[in-house]
Design a protein that fits this description.
The complex is a heterodimer. By secondary structure, chain A is of the alpha+beta class. Chain A has a domain of 152 residues: PAS domain (Beta-Lactamase), CATH 3.30.450. Chain A has 6 helices and 5 strands. Chain A has a 5-stranded antiparallel β-sheet. In chain A, strand 4 and strand 5 form a beta hairpin. In chain A, helix 1 runs antiparallel to helix 2, helix 1 packs antiparallel against helix 4 and helix 4 runs parallel beside helix 6. Chain A is rod-shaped and about 130 Å long. The relative contact order of chain A is 0.12. In chain B, the strands form 3 sheets. In chain B, strands 7-6-8-9-10-13-14 form a 7-stranded mixed β-sheet, sandwiched between helices. Chain B has a 5-stranded parallel β-sheet with strand order 2-1-3-4-5, sandwiched between helices. Chain B has a two-stranded antiparallel ribbon with strand order 11-12. Helix content of chain B is 42%, strand content 14%. The relative contact order of chain B is 0.14. Chain B has 15 helices and 14 strands. In chain B, a hairpin with a 2-residue loop joins strand 13 and strand 14. Chain B is an alpha/beta fold. Chain B folds into 2 domains: 210 residues, Rossmann fold, CATH 3.40.50.2300; 160 residues, Rossmann fold, CATH 3.40.50.2300. The N and C termini of chain B lie far apart (113 Å). The chains are: A alpha+beta, B alpha/beta. The interface between A and B is medium-sized, with 17 and 27 residues.
Chain lengths: 245, 437
Amino acid sequence: MKIQKLFQKTLFGVFSLFGVISLSTSVLCVYTVDTHLSEEYESNSRDIAKTIADSSVDILLNRDLSALQSLIDQFVEIQSIRYIYIVDEEGAFVAHTFVPGVPEEIRTGDRKDTATVERSLPGLGDFVEVGSPILAGVAGSVHVGMDTDLIALKIQRAIGRQVYLISIILVIGVLAAIWFVNLAAKPLGDLLAYAVALARDQDNGAEDKLLARDDEVGQLARLFLYFSEGVHAEGEQRVSAGNDS
Amino acid sequence: MRAITRRALLRSGLTWCAAAPWLKPLRAIADTDARPPAPQMSPGVTDTEIVLGVSAAFSGPSRGLGIELYRGASAYFDHVNEQGGIAGRNVMLKTYDDGYQPAPSVRNTLKLMLQDQVFLLFGYVGTPTVTRVLPMLKKFQDRNIFLFFPFTGAQPQREPPYGDFAFNLRSSYRQETAGLVDNFVRINRKRVAVFYQADAYGRSGWAGVRRALKRYGRQIVGEATYRRGTRFTASMRRQVEILKASQPEAVICIGSYAACAAFVRDAVDLDLQVPIANLSFVGSENLLKLLSHWALTEGRGDSEAYTRLLVNSQVVPSYEEASMPAVKEYRDLMRRYNPQPPIELLKEPYRPSEHSFVSLEGFINAKLMVEILRRLGDKPERSQLERTVFTVQDFDLGIDERASFGPDRRQGLQQVYYTVVDEGRFVMLDNWEDRFA
């Protein structure tokens, strides 16, 4: 598709503008989705940890630990929750979901601390761990590990969908721009061809159409014709004057 | 000739009217209203059948447990049905497969209770499944549906808040683990590590070991876990390495046969030469079958190397003890009926064991179940179940322990047996010192 030189800059401008919009929207989207999803997951995990902590009091005080294990097994089925462990008031594990065993980093760390921490566990991945005290901490604490890799994957998917949509809009937009530019440029091309034909005193076949237009192109065509006829008349006068002399 | 009086005419007219056929339906209605209403049959009971609901593992790596338990129970029920049933009713099992997974187990139980309307639930397999089912029994407690003799020794169905909805026959994991720890400590193997299934069953056994060691002022020296459903082909080397690092003097496994056999295999291969104990739930014969087959096919030849250090606790006596009447009867009936698992539930081929601890347990469960159903009389009702179970006192099941129940005793038997492998089969362990000291 041939694009008139006059509009190439316009097209480049459209491309650039769309590019900037796509890029800035994607960056904003990454930031927003990342922040919101992370906050949401962390909030959910904290709620889960609190729910388990509240439910654990009765089980820890009155019932067998298998009931506690059964409880956390149900929660660990939730996607993005990768591990849960419960320690008693002395920090000893009373239930957990680790296979093949409790990771060294958790085993040797401060298990009574319920502050949110980021963990990188070899062979398991990266996690954000949130904690909740049981009976204000006097009966132990619950710790829930969220898989940040999984959250990152979800963010990637969300962003991927957004970028995909923007890319489709970009392609459609550019194609539409090219079509519109060509639509606008065609009368100018015809006018140029007409002007060249007039200069050569030829008939280009599009004369009637151009002269009939009521827009600027039509006015220019009529102006070219007027000048051309003037030049012709002047030229004929000069020729006849030359013959007379 | 006597003259017909007006009164006599009236009386004979009334008599004729009363005998008239067109009055029969009205009489029937009147009779029904007059007599006390006939008691309605309890759900799961018809004139010819009493239906018991079963949800157990008939597929997956633990299918051997569900199948063998079912086979043992079926042998006795078949025998009773052949003898005319209970008050003319055959005992039937409505069976579903849960693959030893909690979610299907819950679905099956709902179906059994609400759709199939069984009389009671019987012979469930596994802690993770049963612990999820118990709250449903509480939810439908107004229907008096009880769970009888589940194949698990966990605590939740033995204590509040769900203990009132189940009756156990076998000893608990707490009793099994306490017995194992006591014996290990006695022979001076005090550093005990635990290999367990990462779920409620594993935790129940783990808690039992922890509790038993605490009595000696000791703690579990090392622990490693595996996921439920792990097959024999899986590697347990990492778990063995974790436990080996803790330098244990004995390992107690709380798992099912496929994973525990894999652990024993890798432990022996990695030279962890300490006694390895398994609980009754493991399914001893299937464990032995896997280890022996592996030693044979992998060219290890000496399968004894993999089984010499095994010690399995059991909750029923050995099926080799034919001197016990129940064991003799079990062997006879298993041979006579050779019960097969429900064909529609079998997804993979399974070769049944001629005899096993699990099928013997199923058999003894069925024996006591039949006794309870008999005691319910001609018109079995769910509402009478609990009271009837409590009438079972010092009942002779034909083994070396008598079963008793009561409001504070919802577990019939208390004994734990210990077995080791000799000449390719499980035999009773007589002397811990000689074997493991």
